[in-house]
Amino acid sequence: MIQPGGRWFVPDRMQIMLLVIAVIGLVAGVSFVGLGIKRSAALAVNQAAHRQLAEAEQQKARLIQALADAQQGAHIAPKAYDYFGQTAPGVTTILIKPVRQTQAADKTAGRPDGPPFWGNWWQQLAKP
Length: 128
Fold this sequence. Notes:
Shape: flat
Helix content: 55-70%
Structural class: mainly alpha
């Protein structure tokens, strides 16, 4: 501002010091906020790594147990029955006949093959 007498307003030494302190405080505050954001991101990555490590340790324990069981022969027969479709001696197996094609066709005969009824309405409304 121009003061009477034609001189520009020149701040005194106290006002300059307050301005410098305010700028330094603002820069420090922004820096601390940035450091806080980086710290929280690093903590999130650290927690994810700990969870992944715990899952890997659990998987390792399961694999060690499965290896010990396999070496003792504990699961060989049930797995073989599952993989090859066989059953153990003395086990009764019940087979279910598949549904005939004519019965399946009768059940689907009442349904139209096109889009649902409201789909046609939507197409009619969408046309300009």
